[in-house]
Amino acid sequence: MAEYRLLTKDFGTEGLQTLKGYERAGGYQALRTVFGKFTPASLVDEVKTSGLRGRGGAGFPTGTKWSFLPQGVMPRYLCCNADESEPGCFKDRYLMDNSPHQLIEGVLLGSYAVQSNISFIYIRGEYRDQRLLLERAVEEARAAGYIGKNILKSGFDCDIIVHGGAGAYICGEETALLDSLEGYRGQPRLKPPFPAVKGLYGKPTVVNNVETLSTLPHIVLRGGEWFKSIGVEGSTGTRVFCCSGHINRPGSYEMQLGTPIRELLDEECGGMLPGSELKAFQPGGGSMQVLLPQHVDLPLDMNAVQKAGSSLGAGAMVFMDQTACLVDYSMRLVDFYEHESCGKCVPCREGTYFQSQLMHKLESGLATAAELATLTDICSNMDGRCFCPLGDTATWFVMSAYKYFRDEFESHCGAGECPVKARTRAQAA
Amino acid sequence: MASGAPPVKGGSAGGVPPQDDGRVGVTIDGRQVRVPKGTLVLDAAAGLGIHIPIYCSHPKMEPVAVCRMCLVTIEKFPKPQPACATYVSEGMVVSTGDADVVKLREGMLEFLLVNHPLDCPVCDRGGECDLQDFTFRYGPSISRFPITEKVHFNKALPLSEHIELDQERCILCWRCVRYYDEITGEKEIVLQQRGVQTLVGTFNEQPLQSRFQGNLPEVCPVGALTHREYRFVARPWELQRTAGVCPECSYGCNLNIDARDFEIKRFASRDNPLVEDMWLCDRGRYSVPRWNSTERVRRAALHPRHGEARDVATGEAIAQAATELRHVIEESGPASVGVIGSAANTNEELFLLERLARNVIGTANIDHQLSTFAGISAAEHELGIAEIEECDLIVVLGPEPENEAPVLTLRLFKAEHKRGRTVRRLRPDPHPAEVASLRGDAGFVGIIADESNRERAAQVAAHLAGRGTVKRLTVTRGVNGRGAKDLGLLPNVLPGYVAARPAGAGGADILEAAARGEIKALVLLGPSSALQAAGDVLVRAVSRAASVVVIDTVPSEVTAHATVLIPGHAIVEKIGSVTNLEGRVQRVRPALPPATQTPAETRVLTALAAELGAADWPGGDPVSVNRALRAALPAYAAAGNGGRALWRVQVPA
């Protein structure tokens, strides 16, 4: 098993970003057939059958999520979460850059399944080019009758609105996304009620990731059973992994789930850089726990990685070699969360700031052992106490790195400088 | 439950599943309790006397669960849950004191203090600050955060003439933001920036405009929002607190009067969900300087029309008043005496004044205001404040009701936005088409008007009659305007809205008759400020009448022309009861010693009545008078203290 191109099959084809190019490659066939083939309810069942799980990070089964919408409450909304901001993550950008129409078709299929007549694509503010590309694509699709009233004479109406965020990581959290979309401060909402019951403008709403929705045309065309045959039990289909770090070929690679991580690293990414040796890797983006070289034999399977103490998260793989300082890496991540904390709840707002102050001291070799103990203690005071996962996840990498690389953390205490950087410098000299 | 144990009332004894009585059984810290479905864990614990610290949670607002201070462990939940936002369910097992909770509270307080300036010694909130109190009770004894790294913001930012904001002390509980969102709907305070830089403030730094901003320092759990008037004024433990009623209007908001050194330092809210629902208006809250004013009538005095003015003992003044009144009655008959009380006297004083006028002096010329209310009946005072929330439709005539009694606005907002009721604000003189359009809304209708539009309100009520229940509420003027009407301080109505036959002259007529020389003696129980509106007539009346007996608190033209002047006690200095616009009889208590050494009005009126030969007179102390009042008026006996005096309403045929 190696790369398995389903979503990315036609990527690189001339003009795929345009409607004509997408149609030439077989685009919108799923939309053309869906109305005859499925009722909204049977489409939800088909997606349930496929075993498709959300690609945004939490991995919640998509069909099940859709089935939580209360019967008969209208209007309903579908929101595509394109606020990809996870450190190390760029697979949604890759999908939107190469095939905006595939996403639009997915949004339309999802909207049909949940009976949303107005659907939104909430795209990260910094993804300006992608937003313009999507807006153009929406216009093209509208002109071609794929979007709007009575789509393809099916009687189904759906409009799609592309909305750009304003540069906040928290707006990738689904309820913060909804608040932001409604024009409020992007801050997570109290749950319950969950968006499925009370979401956008207080109406039943589903929020799905770009990759999740981009997968839908393929499920509609080839069936849930077929999709389920790819991948492994509990992790069906393919996923796009965006790989970075000390590797030869950083980039996005679509893999059949269940493939060993080693294959992704060695074959697609071309292995570690010359002279580099894998020290650690983060399998799911900035929020997820660090794993060790022995874990590269794990399959790309959400459950298996979870059992190993981390998660495939949003599919961002960061590989680190011996020159990477885990304290430094932790500090940068903590700074990110400190900067991105929305400030709504106390442990996240104050905790990330506290963490950041301590991490900077630790990384510069000025912290005492007592301060290192304080750092881990405040992490434990944050984890599981915060309003939303942002604050919880701000501690996960630090705590896992501390677990696996405790010596490295302790050697920073009172060292006066970063010992890993000092060693690297000495070796280079 | 072990077999053989006695069955517990309401429990699930003998393994029989509990009946669905709308309640669920929960266990909190090993103690079992059955509470109504939809109860928050926080409230269920409070019912057991178990304290859970909160900052963001507020009894009058929706939960937001941002401070994370109330996290408790609940069996089967993987993570601690906020007690302020988690509803009980059958069989829930909650722990509020286990090692996890103890540690997380310590952790949360450490986080709260990370960027807190710890300036308690100069903070107005010190001594009544939840952050201070919970830190003592649940917090760590030391901070591990280096003090040099604290984030700094504005420390004394005026948001308006009343409110000051200290952005460093703010713990971002959002209560002020939610107060403006959920209670007043004015949305004046917003959150700005994000993360550790998050601030509360006003948009574009514009000043607060609300008429209810004085509630902000009370919803703030720390010293971030403070009263500018109370800045550096007192420590809470130095204050003597008296439960009182706001003297500013007839809404009857419950409040606490905090005094020190014979001065009122502040009015603080005292939650009565049936009246003000814990929210005061700024007009009432910041009326404090008026009650601390030293400009007062302090000594009894005689100012004979011929001869020298002199200060006298109260007894002499009362005797002189009796002599003058007897003289006028003998010379010209009792109808030449006019008696005017005020809407700022207690029920007990007004009860005695009405008896003095009608029974002792024998005059029908009695009032407490200038204008005469034709056809006044209990029907215009029927709707209760809390009942507003139950109305399907509430019609408010003109802006006056909400100007007279500002807190009414908040009840209307609650009815409209929390209870989904329809509130229609019409012109005081609504177009017939507008009134006609109301016919479609059947059910329970409330009509609210001020006194000047009471007749129009009656017309609207008549239009809607027969379409379900229609109840009216008239916003009376003066703290006890309603009591004065109930007690018959009106020329056309005896106590209990019984028609007076024949009717006497009303306030304005009394003054004009006195100015013309027809009424020769005036008995004025003040404050007489409401009479000032009569202007020139008032001055001519008090200058011309042969005898002007004035009992008043503040020097004025009236007191200057009194032939007999006796000092009164301000409403914050005496004991008694007042009746709010919906008929709720509420007690007032002395928060300050009287500004004068003379006896209170009830004793003065009793002595005067005795001098005039009154029989069957209750004792002069307020308690005895109150007892007599209740005996005379069954509605007041039924109301007790804090209940509503309800009169049988005659439905107009």
Defining key terms:
heterodimer; A: 429 residues; alpha/beta; four-stranded mixed β-sheet; 18 helices; 45% helix; globular; B: 653 residues; seven-stranded mixed β-sheet; five-stranded mixed β-sheet; 27% helix; 18% strand; disordered N terminus
Verbal overview:
The complex is a heterodimer of chains A (about 425) and B (about 650). Chain A has about 425 residues and is of the alpha/beta class. Chain A has 18 helices and 10 strands. Chain A has helices spanning about 20-25, 30-35, 40-50, 60-65, 90-100, 100-115, 130-145, 175-180, 210-220, 225-230, 260-270, 300-305, 325-340, 345-365, 370-380, 390-405, 405-410, 420-429, and strands at about 75-80, 120-125, 160-165, 205-210, 230, 235, 240-245, 250-255, 280, 315-320. A 4-stranded parallel beta sheet of chain A has the order 3-2-1-4, with helices on both faces. A 4-stranded mixed beta sheet of chain A has the order 8-7-10-9, covered by helices on one side. In chain A, strands 5-6 form a two-stranded antiparallel sheet. In chain A, helix 2 packs across helix 9 and helix 13 runs antiparallel to helix 16. The longest helix of chain A has 18 residues, at about 345-365. Chain B is α/β, with parallel strands linked by helices and about 650 residues long. Chain B has 20 helices and 28 strands. In chain B, strands 15-14-26-25-24-16-17 form a 7-stranded mixed beta sheet, with helices on both faces. A 5-stranded mixed beta sheet of chain B has the order 2-1-5-3-4, sandwiched between helices. Chain B has a 4-stranded parallel beta sheet with strand order 19-18-20-21. In chain B, a hairpin with a 3-residue loop joins strand 22 (about 495) and strand 23 (about 500). The N and C termini of chain B lie far apart (about 65 Å). The chains are: A alpha/beta (about 425), B alpha/beta (about 650). The interface of A and B includes residues 346, 347 and 351 of A.
